[in-house]
Amino acid sequence: MRRLRLATFESEGAGAFQRAGPPGNTIKFSTVTAPRTVPSVDSGASSAKASRRVVSIQRWSIGLLIAGGALNYIDRATLSVANKLIQDDLHIPVAKMGLLLSAFLWAYAFAQLPVGGLIDRYGPRKLLALGLFAWSLAQAAGGFVTGFGPFVIARAALGFGEAPLFPGGARVVRDWFGIRERGFATGLCQSAGTFGNFVAVPLLTFLMLRLNWRWMFIIVGAAGVVLSLIWWSIHRDPAEISLTPDERRYLTEGDEAAADRPPSFAEWGELFTHRTTWGMIAGFFGTVYTLWLFTSWLPYYLEHERHMTIEQVGALAGIPYFCGAVGAIVGGWLCDLLTRHGWTPIGGRKILISSALAGISLCTLATVFAQSNAVALVFISICVFLVYISSSAAWATVPIAAPGQFTASLGSIQNFGGYLGGALAPAVTGFIVQRTGSFSQALMLCAGVCLVSAAAYLLLVQKPIQAGHA
Question: pTM of this prediction?
Answer without folding.
Answer: 0.71
